[in-house]
Amino acid sequence: MPSTKVQMHMQYFLALVIIVIIIICALWINTFQPRWLLPLKNMNASASISKLDPGNGEVSSSSPLNTTRVVRRKWSVLLVYTGFFGQQEWFRITEDCKSPQLNGSCSKDLFNVTYDKGRFLESDYVLFHGRDMPSTSHMRMIWKKKPSSQFWIYFLEESPRATPDTRPLNGMFDITMTYRVDSDIWQPYGSYVEIPLKDQKNVLQEDFSVGKTKLVSWMVSNCNPQLRKLFVHELQKYIAVDVFGSCSREFGQPKSCPKESCKDIIKKYKFYLSFENALCKDYITEKYWSHLGDENIVPVVMGGADYSKLAIPGSYINVLDFKTVKDLAEYLHYLDKNITAYNEYFKWRKRYRMGGDWSVLCQFCKKGSSLTGLQLKHNQDLSDFWVRQGKCDEKDQLVRKMWTAHSSVVYLLILMTLILITILVIALIIIYYTQIYKVT
């Protein structure tokens, strides 16, 4: 009989220990969020590459391999091989480059842009959009026919997290054209230049807070990235944030911002959350650049880029400049009450203006109209450049700590308490069974 009781008590004991271990593990995961739990899609948004029907003009299977061409013309043929999110004739060079640095020497006539795949072998450059890539088998087929003097361009404005798997493309591309500063051809979402001193005008003593009756706005339609949503949920504990777009329902406020009147709605706010959907190296999108106009609003940015080097100085508030989300909210409240401090964020307009010579044509011409002098990364490892060097996970934890760091002590105390309780329970059970065995 005692042995049966011992077995029953042992079962209770084991069940209790398992429950305590599960609770401890759950709290640990919630607190520290180990990297191995992150979804694999963060590294590659898709495990396969979308297919594109090559259509008429496909490269003939009888074409000679690695044909070396002797080019005797003064202009270059640029074949646009893919569409752009389904749009076919999307890439054009319509005017000469207006960069003063090139002294008018960069003419649109230097390039003959074509969409005719039948001109593949005569093309100097072949441009592919990373989100509209042909199938892997098709890419391998035309790769075998690529003339040795031909350059392939990988063009993309999306982040690595929203990019099809680049591994099948390793060794195929010679030129990268992306928002990354270290691309062969830099193609940012926006840029700025310093206004010459002689053209700088005194900024009017305008109060940019006039007419602004609300504090923080955010427009979001891509509901998948969780980090920025968690951040906003935390921010709403300390300051009012009005959310617009298809994701607004997740915040209990189904608000819309019609295209024709959205700018007038945004004008009523002092701050706008320019939060990127991925915190990747150099990734600053229109979420920042498009809100520097006559809305007279201060962008609050969150991204993986070095804003001090790529964004307009004095035009933004970076969430990573604050220790906690609460600190950020308190600073926004401070600016709301201090008109002088708020207006400091508009003084950049005296010294800088948006724009520059970052057109595709200017970028080509800066490298040399035929790119012959450019040290290209022939057969480069695209995955290494785009995914590993893209560093999309580097700053995620820094952002998470802005609202989890202050609760870590609480979680630690809870864990320590659970451990002590477990030890106490084990000790009591041992004492109990010791007494039972003495009796038996």
Architecture overview:
Keywords: Glycoprotein, Glycosyltransferase, Golgi apparatus, Membrane, Signal-anchor, Transferase, Transmembrane, Transmembrane helix. The N and C termini lie close together (10 Å). The chain is flat, with a radius of gyration of 29 Å. The longest helix has 44 residues. The protein has 440 residues and is α/β, with parallel strands linked by helices. Helix 3 links the parallel strand 8 and strand 9. Helices cover 32% and strands 13% of the residues. Strands 2-1-3-4-5-6 form a six-stranded parallel sheet, with helices on one face. Strands 9-8-10-11-12 form a five-stranded parallel sheet, covered by helices on one side. Helix 1 runs antiparallel to helix 12. The chain contains twelve helices and 13 strands.
Low-confidence stretches: 31-58, 60-71
Which geometry do the CA atoms define? flat
Number of helices: 12
- Class by helix and strand content? alpha/beta
- Global mean pLDDT: 81
Helix content: 25-40%
